[in-house]
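User: I've been going back and forth on whether these two constructs are worth ordering. Before I decide, could you fold them both?

Assistant: Sure. I'll take them in the order you sent them. The first construct and its structure tokens:
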Amino acid sequence: MRMFDKRIDALMTQLLLGPAQPIGEVIDYFYRVEFQARGSPHIHCLCWVAGAPVFGEDPDDKVCDFVDHYVSCQLPDAEKQPLLHGFVTSLQTHSKNHSKSCKKDNRACRFGFPKPPARTTRITYPMPEDQDHRAMTPQAAKNKLRPVWNLLNNPTSQLDDMSQLLATCNMTLKEYNLSVESLTSSSVILMKRDVKDCWVNNYNPHLLTAWNANMDIQYILDEYGCIMYMLSYISKPESEMSDYLKTIVKEMSPENETEREEMKGVLQAYSKHREVSAQESVARTCSLKMKSCSREVVFLQTGDNPLKMSLRSARCRTNLQILRMFG
């Protein structure tokens, strides 16, 4: 955990915020450490880049050029870039044998692999909801694309490029693009991918070479997507635990329990209900940084009896104070 903490600090201070600027000039950032089911840590990070084009204000071509400059999903040439090719093959390539996690919520792959191939990076827009004005219904698009997905999911298929894929499926490029766009319910960036790249996840070549671990780097199109990522993903609350503790408190009788006994009961319920890995235990015990932000945090009073908590230490005063709010 200490090694991970040092690596994250070096990633932010020496690389992302350093003179190399692998994703441009980062003017603001916010990240949080999270732990997988096996206990291993990873971070969710949001970066604001100076001069980045704004979707809806700048032309789509400018946005796509910006994305292509910093994000790739292509398999590098093994002879020209052997090191990067090894990283992408071992770290960024999704397995064709989908795991149990992929099939969560009865989906073929909740991560969307294999990704649809595309000759250029472009932004797709949702079709009108009115069936009369739709060029193709979502169900018709799924039926049209089924031969494509079957070929891409077939481990024995030997397809080299998109032309060969479309010819095998007896489909024109126009029909393929229309089918893919008919499946999107919101604006989506469709990355430039050849057939061999359909299992490669988004990465930045410089960051991947330096970090040597899996990443998923994306350009966020709109403010709503940014807010949703921050509130429901990067800093998602443990609502299940909160509901469980509220139930425990309600079941306690104030007539028979002292405040000390109530707190002890809540503590025991918390320790028995939430499973904490060894890595997370070490991180919290050693007060390792679990989140960081380039801006100060402002406490907003949203309830009748809110509680403001901060970790009072020299380290916290020199860095960002961690504020948590309990309703």
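The second construct, handled the same way:
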Amino acid sequence: MESSSSALSRLSNLQRHLQPPHSNSKIRQGLVKLSPEVAEALSTGHPVVALESTIISHGMPYPKNLETAKEVEAIVRENGAVPATVAILDGVPCVGLSMGELERLATLGTKAQKTARRDIAHVVANRGNGATTVSATMFFASMVGIHVFVTGGIGGVHRHGEQTMDISSDLTELGRTPVAVISAGVKSILDIPRTLEYLETQGVCVAAYNTNEFPAFFTERSGCKVHCRVDTPDDCARLIDANLKLKLGTGTLIAVPIPKEHSASGGLIESAIQIALREARDKNITGNAETPFLLAKVNELTGGASLASSILLLVLNTWYSNLGSFILWPRN
């Protein structure tokens, strides 16, 4: 396997080819604010990894959220790439946040609006503060020419979604936005088989790293097989590269399972999920409020095991930015 410096060089050449410096008219028109570090990286073809911000505002309390955000960005830099945390501040979409902006978002917490694609225009028009979910982060990453996004877990089809039609916009975004998403799979509070069926309908290539089974966020196994397995950074690189060059117009989902030694007991988590789901139904908690409620309840019932896994997953999957940020792209 080639050295990281060689891989970085080849990726830089590819990014310059795919995204010429300052070619995006939306950036020139001032619709999106790039941090100086991200702007320079994009202009020179240096690897950039997009990061969502909902985990900062809604994922955990202050100051743990700020500490985790800083740790995640540090790991991206240690691996040779530039982190680009995405958020909307005072109505301005920002790709790449300063330490001051990260701290502001962390202290705002849930006062910042959880922002999916549908919410972007509303938050911007009202000069509000928004923490981007997977769908909104993918949208802004694609807008500025960032091709890789690392997160903990994506949304999916909710249980009983065939009746409620409660389906995360993350899935339709993957079907129309050419960004590679590196994640820990789908949370088991969701309907994983239907989520994978929906992604197939959207034409999204779903790959699993070093396994034939799609991971379930808290645990390494879901019982659902995948049709695409990737075992090395080279495999991931060829997959992402082919998707971009063929202009398929869809995202790529690469699921990386949590290591066995850090995986919470699947039976314990599943039991807690069932209790949380019943309580959510009893309290008529639905829509955007359901997932945060379920995660908080599962965290409570498992004595903090699930939150600990969530934080670990975010950090581990950022390390796996190797798979998409300075990965070993195929030779020309």
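Notes on the second construct follow. The chain has 15 helices and eleven strands. The first strand starts at residue 33 and ends at 34.
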